[in-house]
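B., you asked whether I could sanity-check this one before it goes into the benchmark set. Here's the sequence:
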Amino acid sequence: MKIKSIKFFTLGLSLNLCIFIIQGCEKSPVGSEDISLGARKISGNINLNDGSDPTGIYVWLEQFNLSTKADQNGDFQLILPTPASQGPPGGINGTFNLYYYMANYRLSSSLVITKNGEFVFSEADVNREGQLKLPNPLVKFLQIDTKITPSTVKINFSQAIKVETTLEAVHRNVTVVFPKALGRIIGAIFIKKVEDNRIFIIETEFDLNIVGDHETLLILQPPEPRTMETEFKLNEVNLPTGDYEIIPYFLIEDKETPIALFESFGAGIDELGPNYLKLPMRRNGGSFKITK
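And here's what the prediction gave me:
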């Protein structure tokens, strides 16, 4: 097994590099002008059932295709555009789902009602102050643990660095796909530099004559963990010193989440590229450090 290719992306501007912004696009418009929002703003709080950091829980309103993210306390706000800019004359009317999404937790939602392009307070799951009734915390269904051995190395370290990712279904069966993988060997990993969010993508090349695409499909049943692995060498990747997070590339089959919600993240969310990291997911481990 050896490295097939290495790709490098960065948040900063640099010559001869592909530039990508690895951050969520919040589509709730908030103008700088001093205007009255009326009943176009609602707010709420959402958390995770295992006490993990709720930062980045994705909040998405169907029909309007508006999104925002929860902060470190699980708080968020969602603001509708002006009725005149919503499309139908006088604004959108109806009852809609407001979804709360974290990729390895069960999808949850609240109901909201709009009339003439504004939220209707004291109806559905919105109280008279425009606060959403507190939804239950999102329930984890997939535990993700990544171990790096060794986890700290010097820049001239010449031996193989092993990456092991263990997945364990919680409460229900989970189907996971590792694209480009073969057997228990992970097909690709992301190496994210913590200080500046530079992204290195390493794709594995297998020493086999394989025709066409290949992948590993895991059907996980609780409480039976499954482990996938790969390895790389520093002299093949040329990483600078610093702190990193190593993230395996895999996809969770999810029939409950609306396709339009996935599409709101933008193109390439399920492909081997930096947009994949826009998917909010809670992982444990994966820390890696290179010193002088």
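One thing to flag: The two ends are 27 Å apart (CA to CA). Otherwise nothing jumped out at me.
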